[in-house]
Amino acid sequence: VQLQASGGGKVQAGGSLRLSCAASGSIYSIQAMNWYRQAPGKQRELVASITNSGSTIYADSVKGRFTISRDSARNTVYLQMNTLKPEDTAVYSCNADSRMPSGRYHYWGQGTLVTVSS
Predict the structure, then answer these.
(1) Residue 26: its pLDDT value, please?
(2) Whole-number Å distance between alpha carbons of 24 and 53
(3) For position 32, what pLDDT does the model report?
């Protein structure tokens, strides 16, 4: 599985950005797609997740502001981020949770930087 993330950038507080993560390769094995973020000096945290059945979960800090969605035809997952806050500044990475007969695997795309200024 290969993941290509895009959509980061700089925005003022209160603004919006949409991140995209396009998957290719053994996409049939993907059970869930996740967005993580890591801010400077902090541990990486799960921001949002969407399963094959469409179930979603969100970190408490982003509930009501971020929305994860997917376009199965494009093999792409999106993270719509609204009402951004300076504390949302981080490198955002997409992740695929893959289940194969040989085991469970996690694949990572390259990170994309989101910078929110006050």
Answers:
(1) 86
(2) 19
(3) 96
Instruction: Collapse the DSSP code of 85 into the 3-class scheme (helix H, G, I; strand E, B; otherwise coil) and give the result.
Output: coil
Residue 81 in tokens:
């981020």
pLDDT reading at 12 higher than 90? yes
**Residues 109 and 91 sit within 8 Å (Cβ to Cβ):** no
* DSSP per-residue letters across 15-64: --EEEEEEEESSGGGEEEEEEEEE-TTS--EEEEEEETT--EEE-TTTTT
Which pLDDT score is estimated for 107? 96
Decide the pairing of beta strands 56-58 and 76-81: unpaired
Residues 42-80 have pLDDT tens digits of 999 999 999 999 999 999 999 999 999 999 899 999 999
CB neighbour class for 6 (10 Å; exposed up to 12, middle 13-18, buried from 19):
middle
What's the sign of the alpha-carbon dihedral 53, 59, 64, 65?
negative
